[in-house]
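Incident log, support desk, overnight shift.

02:14 A customer reports that sequence design results differ from what the structure should imply. Their input is reproduced verbatim below. On-call engineer (initials T.W.) acknowledged and began investigating.
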């Protein structure tokens, strides 16, 4: 019989206990679960190569979901409330819960109208950095177009 070793995952300590009477004034405690519920956002572009206003990170090949890793200021994505740490659950009729990064990018690039279902899930998003390190592969549809129609 061969010897084999299995390493245990690093133990994560639970967060510090915050007494109920101190929770409403404590920045580390927020009992508003609405921010974590799925929400829908519709982004329309005039042309397929117009900017989406966000980058994505993750994918099935990285054993994690797809997350918004950056939102550019003054874009529709920013105005509609997308934020870093949002997990992309669905775009149009395609589930993004078990999709390759490249396939996700193709869907983003090939549609002028995108109906996104996202949920804020910072814990899962932070895990993508633990598994892979700093960002290396992300997607931005095109150069950012300002409100005046010029590239920046």
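02:41 Re-run completed on a clean worker. Output:
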């Amino acid at each position: 019989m061969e010897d084999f070793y299995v390493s245990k995952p690093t133990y994560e300590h639970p967060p510090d206990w915050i007494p109920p009477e101190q929770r409403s004034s404590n920045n580390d405690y927020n009992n508003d679960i609405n921010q974590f519920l799925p929400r829908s956002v519709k982004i329309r572009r005039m042309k397929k190569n117009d900017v989406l206003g966000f980058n994505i990170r993750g994918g099935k090949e990285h054993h994690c979901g797809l997350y918004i890793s950056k939102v550019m200021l003054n874009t529709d994505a920013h105005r509609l409330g997308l934020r870093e740490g949002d997990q992309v659950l669905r775009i149009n009729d395609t589930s993004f819960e078990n999709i390759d990064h490249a396939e996700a990018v193709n869907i983003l690039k090939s549609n002028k109208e995108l109906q996104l279902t996202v949920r804020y899930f910072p814990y899962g998003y932070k895990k993508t950095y633990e598994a892979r390190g700093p960002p290396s592969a992300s997607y931005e549809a095109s150069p950012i177009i300002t409100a005046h129609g010029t590239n920046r």
